[in-house]
Design a protein that fits this description.
The protein has seven helices and three strands; from the N terminus they run αβααββαααα. By secondary structure, the protein is mostly helical. This is WYL domain-containing protein.
């Protein structure tokens, strides 16, 4: 049963990182439904206890107090404005191909919620930017840096 508890906490944390941000908080009902989709049984009291354990462990989970409390990840490795700046730099780069730019912006999106990741894709529109057709440019630059 302890293993099920560990998996539950990890899945809760995954849910909070992937699906919540300051504009998209989650309720305990949302979290419980997500866990149920994953085949993990959890009651409200267990979810509350797990959230408190994560907060005690140092995870920045913000609680929006209301009749039905809401939760979201408060701080991440990169804040959204930093990710926007990086995505724009990647999309604007004339040495990174359109295909590689899209892949890099998608990877940057993995560092935030799915909602903000969608916004990143839209902000880093690649259609109007001049991009090289050669995918090898990326690897050539890496080789040059290794030689320096």
């Amino acid at each position: 049963m302890q293993s099920q508890g560990n998996i539950r906490v990890v899945e809760m944390l995954r849910y909070l990182y992937q699906h919540t941000d300051e504009n998209h908080p989650a309720t305990v009902t949302d979290i419980t439904a997500y866990l149920k989709e994953r085949g993990i049984q959890a009651v409200r009291q267990t979810v509350y206890a797990d959230l408190n354990a994560l907060i005690t462990a140092g995870f920045d989970i913000v609680i929006v107090k209301s009749t039905q409390n809401q939760y979201f990840i408060g701080s991440r490795l990169f804040e959204y404005p930093e990710l926007k700046m990086l995505a724009d730099a990647v999309a604007s780069s004339k040495i990174i191909s359109a295909k590689k730019s899209e892949a890099l912006v998608q990877k940057l999106g993995c560092l935030t919620s799915i909602h903000q990741a969608e916004q990143l894709k839209g902000l880093a529109s690649l259609s109007s930017r001049v991009k090289p057709g050669n995918e090898k440019v990326y690897y050539i630059i890496d080789s040059i840096h290794l030689l320096c």
